[in-house]
C-alpha cells in the first residue's frame, strides 16, 4: 500500500468502517499544497478492497492534475464507498460517510461521482459542511458535458482544421449523466453518433431520440469514426483495445482513460490525437469548486469555456516538441503542484 502511495505521490490514505450502516469507505488525498483536496465520491461495487484502494489513489492523483491545469485553488482527492452486498439504508450510510469526511477537518471536500447523486450529497451535508453538489448547489454533470463539448471542438479544429460537428461521426461509450448530456449536445450540433452502454434502456433511448446507431460494448472500439468518445469508467485505452481503435481523435469525459502511461505514447505513435482526460473533463470540477466558493453561474460558464483554448494550446506545444499530449499535460500539472509545494514548505 505504501509503495502505491509513494508511486502516486499521495499524501494521505484514510479508511472508515461503520458496522451499524455497513459503510466501508476510503478517502485518498493526493495533495493540499494549493488548497483543500476536492473530488467526487464513488459508490460502486468493487471485486475486493485492493481494487477500491487502487481506484481511489489513481483518481485522487487525476483530480490534483485536473485542479492544477484548471487553475483552481485546490489539491486533488477522491473517495470510494464500497457498495454493500446486502440490505442497507442508503441515507444513513451517506450520513455516516459525512462524518468520515468531517473527521478530516476540511482537508477534503466531497462531491458527486459515479454511483452517487444529489440526494446522497444532501444526506452527507447533514454530517459535514465539506460537501458540494447538494440540492442547493446543483449537478456538475452538465458542466462536465459542456467542457467536453468545447474540448471536442478544439480537437477537431486542431486535427481537421474545422470544428463543424455536422461533418463528423462520433463513437460514444457510456450514456450516464455526462454521456447522455454530451450526446444530446453533439446530436443537436449535427454529429452522427454510434453509441454503447451496458444498459439497453439507455441505448434504446439514444436510438429513438438521437437517431444514434447502437453497438455492443465490445464493438464500440471497432467503429470507424472521427472521434472515439469514452464517457464511462476508466482504463479503457489498454493493450487489448488500442490497436482496435479506428479514429483520429480520442476525446471524452471518462477519468483515467489510459490503462497506463505507455498508452499515451502508443496513441501518439499511431497518430491519434488524445485529449488528456483531466483537462477535457475538468468542467465538472470547475463547477464544484466555484459553486462551493459561491461564484456566480456566469463566471462558472466562462471558466468552463476556457477548456477550448487550453486544449488548443496544449496540442500546439505537444506538436511543436513532438511529444505525446498526455506527457505534456502531466509535466505541466506536476510543475504547478511542485511549485505550490515549494511555496508551502517555505511558508512553514
UniProtKB/TrEMBL annotation:
CDD domains according to UniProt: NAD_bind_Leu_Phe_Val_DH (cd01075)
Catalytic residues (UniProt): 78
GO molecular function, one term: nucleotide binding
Domain Glutamate/phenylalanine/leucine/valine/L-tryptophan dehydrogenase C-terminal: 138-345
Pfam families registered for this protein in UniProt: ELFV_dehydrog, ELFV_dehydrog_N
Enzyme kind, highest EC tier: oxidoreductase
GO BP of this protein: amino acid metabolic process
Keyword annotations: NAD, Nucleotide-binding, Oxidoreductase
Binding site for NAD(+): 174-179
Annotated EC: 1.4.1.9
Family: Belongs to the Glu/Leu/Phe/Val dehydrogenases family.
PANTHER family linked to this entry: LEUCINE DEHYDROGENASE, VALINE DEHYDROGENASE
Name of the protein: Leucine dehydrogenase
Organism (species): Amphritea japonica ATCC BAA-1530
